[in-house]
């Protein structure tokens, strides 16, 4: 009780995404535009997530995390694209900007907390704000803007199981978490299987490092808009508990 935790995670992600807006453009079906093959947005990127947690009761804690992302690219349209109310002919030079904010704040309840294992139940508000901008000389430098702000609920479970404790108190453990997000016409999945190594720093303070694999997926459930994103890859995290 009264304990604070701060951490930072480097997510070495492979990013795949699709945008489509609206359903029809000048009577024709809007294009499903791929982030990579159509827009040449960077596929491999190191993303940073910042985390904080406060243990206000022995089994209850507040937590907050945010991962801001900005990607941009310039590419020649490999095919004719229909988006917004604009048609972009094949061979046109395009510039794309994509901003993505993944932000969570919520509660953690630990129904099981023993000397060799603990289970954490997460419940949070998820705020995901995206802004997609496509510009070209065809439309006087500003073709289409797709804004999408998602207000969602996210629930999940985390399990940490001790594997080995060293003579100095340092601990190696299996540390995995699964979160599911819903509402606002979107399904989200955030999976983090991994390992943790915790090191005592005296006076009730600890340092830790984590590593593993992460899969983050947002999928729309709408006919008039698609802004789907999949990020997956390894991650490395470090933090301080005091």
Quick gist of this model?
Helices cover 0% and strands 75% of the residues. It is mainly beta and 242 residues long. A hairpin with a 2-residue loop joins β2 (24-25) and β3 (28-29).
The CATH architecture assignment turns out to be: Beta Barrel
SSE series: EEEEEEEEEEEEEEEE
Provide the CATH top-level class.
Answer: Mainly Beta
Shape: elongated
Give start-end ranges of low-pLDDT stretches: none
Helical residue percent band: under 10%
- Nearest-integer average pLDDT: 95
Number of helices: 0
**Number of DSSP-assigned strands:** 16
β-strand percent reads over 45%
The biggest beta sheet, please?
12 strands, antiparallel
What is the CATH third-level topology name? Lipocalin
How many structural domains does the protein architecture include?
Answer: 1
Radius of gyration: 21 Å
Straight-line N-to-C gap: 11 Å
Give an overview of the whole structure:
The structure is a single chain. This protein has a single domain (3-241), classed as Lipocalin, CATH 2.40.128. It has 242 residues and is an all-beta fold. The radius of gyration is 21 Å and the shape is elongated. The strands form three sheets. Strands 1, 4, 5, 6, 9, 10, 11, 12, 13, 14, 15 and 16 form a twelve-stranded antiparallel sheet that branches. Strands 2-3 form a two-stranded antiparallel sheet. Strands 7-8 form a two-stranded antiparallel sheet. The model has no long low-confidence stretch (mean pLDDT 95). 0% of the residues lie in helices and 75% in strands.
Any chance you could write out the topology, listing elements then pairs?
Layout: E1 3-20, E2 24-25, E3 28-29, E4 33-34, E5 44-57, E6 60-76, E7 81-83, E8 86-88, E9 93-113, E10 117-136, E11 144-165, E12 171-182, E13 186-192, E14 194-200, E15 206-220, E16 226-241
Antiparallel strand pairs: 1-4, 1-5, 1-16, 2-3, 5-6, 6-9, 7-8, 9-10, 10-11, 11-12, 12-13, 12-14, 13-15, 14-15, 15-16
